[in-house]
Design a protein that fits this description.
Elements: E1 9-13, H1 26-38, E2 43-45, H2 58-72, E3 77-81, H3 87-99, E4 104-108, H4 117-130, E5 135-139, H5 141-144, H6 150-159, E6 163-168, H7 173-182, E7 188-191, H8 197-202, E8 207-210, H9 217-228, H10 232-248, H11 256-264, H12 284-294
Helix pairs in contact: 1-2, 3-4, 4-6, 6-7, 9-10, 10-12
């Protein structure tokens, strides 16, 4: 397949809402999808790590993606999380998500195994060889315990045209700049951290895969578009307004805070699957103060 930029702007790393019976909440998913699209995001990324994919069954993952695809109705790209620390399982999941209508997949770096750089290369090469659809790599060393180095990312980008980009959440500006400088045409680089989206776009990144856009899609996606147009003065004003919320979303393990926020906003029930638990009470006054300041409650 010929590589082209999958999306430019804001992709929301969608949370997965649950019912009081701890089942996937189909109604809440539909409501969230419409809220995101009305807010102006360019892509939706369900069943990633923010979507608690590790505690969803394969059947639940497929169901969530099917609901999002159906509700989106082609209005935005749907890029489904399909990662695993087993390469064979990652291939199976990718095929399942594509069968449900996803436009592409987001594939997190294998966690816990701690592959070598050659292991990372072989993992993504195997996935790319098995599916004919866009693949976005996801590098998040803080959650996986190992880092995909720039040389490995660029090797994969140059050898596999269906590997169309990377969500970079390493926080390593030197590494990300190396990818931005040397990437082939059409290979996307998206910030994996909301709070550094603005400086990364200034360096040439194509946008962000965002947590905060779950809560405040209109203002955040407006900020991202301003950055992409080079209007950093206006973008910085919005960035500074949203910074407390962006930081709050990681005061405990994500997606605990973002789900607590959405629950207070009346979008979802505050339900998680173990080992995640509800937000600690000591953080709730801060949350409500931030939300009142932003006019979200």
């Amino acid at each position: 397949m010929k590589r082209s930029l999958l999306f430019r702007g804001t992709g929301t790393a969608l949370i997965t809402p649950f019912t009081n019976q701890n089942e996937v909440d189909e109604h809440a998913i539909k409501k969230l999808v419409d809220y995101q699209i009305r807010g102006g995001v360019e892509a939706l990324l369900p069943t990633g790590t923010t979507g608690e994919s590790v505690t969803l069954s394969d059947e639940e993952q497929a169901r969530v993606v099917a609901i999002v695809v159906k509700q989106a109705k082609g209005r935005v790209k749907v890029i489904a999380g399909a990662g695993s620390n087993s390469t064979a399982k990652a291939v199976i999941l990718a095929k399942q998500m594509l069968a449900e209508g996803a436009d592409g997949i987001l594939s997190v770096a294998p966690y816990y195994n701690k592959p070598t750089q050659e292991g990372f290369y072989q993992h993504y090469a195997a996935i790319a060889s098995e599916i004919d659809a866009p693949i976005v790599m996801y590098n998040v060393p803080g959650r996986t315990s190992s880092n995909i180095e720039a040389a490995t990312t660029l090797r994969l980008a140059n050898e596999f045209p269906n590997i169309v980009g990377i969500k970079e959440a390493s926080g390593n500006f030197g590494q990300i700049m190396e990818i931005l400088r040397s990437r082939p045409k059409g290979f996307g680089v998206w910030s994996g951290d909301d709070a550094i989206t603005l400086p990364l776009i200034a360096l040439g990144a194509d946008g962000v895969v965002s947590v905060v856009s779950n809560e405040i899609p209109k203002r955040f996606s407006t900020m991202v578009r301003l950055c992409l147009k080079g209007n950093f003065a206006q973008a910085t004003k919005i960035h500074n307004q949203l910074l407390d919320l962006m930081n709050f979303n990681f005061i405990e393990s994500s997606p605990i805070p973002v789900k607590a926020v959405l629950a207070v906003m009346g979008m979802i029930k505050e339900k998680y699957r173990l080992p995640l638990v509800p937000l600690n009470d000591r953080h709730r006054p801060m949350m409500k103060s931030i939300l009142k300041e932003l006019g979200l409650i």
